Amino acid sequence: MHPIDTIEGGLTQVEERLLQELTIGAGASKVRIWVGKPLTDAEVAAKLKGR
């Protein structure tokens, strides 16, 4: 999941937990939260593979 809005200072633990619960509730089996520049599809795939 990539939050769209700019988040200065990162996410709080509560916000991270909320995003994890939302995505798991929507049917995701794994959740990774990315706070940074928007990623291309190739960058997402590489990050999911651990590169």
Give a topology summary.
Elements lengths: L12 H13 L15 H8 L3
Q: Which sheet architecture does the biggest sheet show? A: none
Oligomer: single chain
Low-pLDDT ranges: none
Strand residue content:
under 5%
Number of DSSP strand runs: 0
Helix/strand order, N-terminal first: HH
Shape: globular
Secondary-structure class:
mainly alpha
Report how far apart the termini are. Answer: 17 Å
Portion of residues within helices: 40-55%
The chain-level mean pLDDT equals: 83
Number of helices: 2
What integer value in Å does the Rg equal?
A: 12 Å
Account of the 3D structure:
With 51 residues, this protein is mainly α. Helix content is 41%, strand content 0%. The longest helix is centred in the middle third of the chain and has 13 residues, at 13-25.
List the main descriptive attributes of the protein structure presented here.
single chain, 51 residues, mainly alpha, 2 helices, 41% helix, globular
